[in-house]
């Protein structure tokens, strides 16, 4: 009946069963390191990027300078050679004439493009006494040898702030959460905060019982905000065929676009007389997926465009176990229907981690045919319509929605249509606990 | 070498036996002997802890909660929660334990599905001043939902 607190215990599923205190400590350390990196990064950025730029714009003193010489400085970067314009300038600072080599801006920025650096260099001409060409420059009053030929703010320096700031936000938030939940049991954390009143020494009333409508039922607002034409509510479809089509189209476009490049390169090798067999074999599985996606797209297109809309309406919502309801079905299109059925379906859905991926498993636990019609024609502009009864079984489980586990009820319309792919359209419904039980 | 190993094992075994015999025990009793309850009914009961003196206990938490079992990650929600703390210098006065009572909610109802199971229980967690937490649980059924029949599974 009891179980002791253990540092190690057998894991159930994918849950961590280390000591909760060690877990909290690890969590705090993890986010603490994030916060530390963020603060360190922000400090470095302020000192090296933002503060010099701000000083150049606010503290530096303006004067004029002569450009005595200029050149392109270069250094070896990670991705190749980098270039920057450099100028030998002469200017008056605090009553003295300074002559020094300087860069264009306060950041001493290197550019990957030599042409760009050349362009900057060409904007400044060498001083000639005849023209007396001088340029504005700004020098640091604390160090008159530091001088720049341009001022202003670099957007990229401010955009870079997003990196350390995001580290700080994540680290601080995580650290606060870890400290707030430090040493607290899973039940204490799960107890609703608004009703949480800690008590001392056996109080007479320390209860925190829930009184509002519970959160375990899925939100059914979308299911009742559309009135029906024959019955009270028109049920929305689980997945709009338009969205599915759009998703498929986007996938086919991206996948086959990339694939096409590979196919063209492979074909070019063949035509040049030097076939690359490794590349050919490598590309085959990708081509199979691409062709499969195209086939699925065409099939979905046929279903969406060829089979008209399916409308399902219901006399009341939410439903209750042992409750009787009227259902109205309307199917449009120009079709020869071999079979059209409506099923009442209940499915369990579990979300779990498997390694680093999250998987969802569904399992039907109740499936009952509530309507069937075979061998009939649907004429264009004259939709097939039928009204029939639905009874939710007594003793059935109600709908349930938690973060990782769900119990979903739905009406599923399945059609077998001549010369068309089979059609399956689902309409979610919500089953509440029986009224007598509430 | 073997003597040292034998001595170490003996000490470990003795320590284990000592901790086993000294392990605190939590007893939870429910009115109606923990059978099936209906939403809106009052769940009442009593709990007590043996093997711990009142001054050894820092805090006790009593929860009425549901949690999921099965294939998915665990979901847990607390319907009712009490936490009792011993003040500094003012320990629990008498034995650790007491009655509890709560009106049960509309749901979720207990459910014994194939990959999703919903379990209700009363959970008592004792925090000793020194040593490990001790947890005791007593399950009960909320509602009388039938177990669904087996149908063919599908996986995404």
For the structure shown, list the relevant keywords.
heterodimer, A: 438 residues, alpha+beta, five-stranded antiparallel beta sheet, 32% helix, elongated, disordered N terminus, B: 156 residues, mainly beta, Immunoglobulin-like, six-stranded mixed beta sheet, three-stranded antiparallel beta sheet, 10 strands
In short:
Helices cover 32% and strands 34% of the residues of chain A. Chain A has 438 residues and is an alpha+beta fold.
Explain this structure.
The complex is a heterodimer of chains A (438) and B (156). By secondary structure, chain A is α+β, with helices and mostly antiparallel strands. Helices cover 32% and strands 34% of the residues of chain A. In chain A, the strands form 3 sheets. Chain A has a 5-stranded antiparallel β-sheet with strand order 4-3-2-5-6. In chain A, strands 11, 12, 14, 15 and 16 form a 5-stranded antiparallel β-sheet that branches. A 4-stranded antiparallel β-sheet of chain A has the order 8-9-10-13. In chain A, helix 7 (241-271) packs antiparallel against helix 8 (277-306). The longest helix of chain A is centred in the N-terminal third of the chain and has 39 residues, at 20-58. Chain A is elongated. Chain A starts with a strand and ends in a 9-residue tail after the last strand. The relative contact order of chain A is 0.10. With 156 residues, chain B is mainly beta. Chain B has one domain: Immunoglobulin-like. Chain B contains 1 helix and 10 strands. In chain B, the strands form 2 sheets. In chain B, strands 2, 4, 5, 7, 8 and 9 form a 6-stranded mixed β-sheet that branches. In chain B, a hairpin with a 3-residue loop joins strand 7 and strand 8 (116-128). Chain B is flat. Classes of the chains: A alpha+beta (438), B mainly beta (156). Strand 1 of chain A pairs antiparallel with strand 9 (134-142) of chain B.
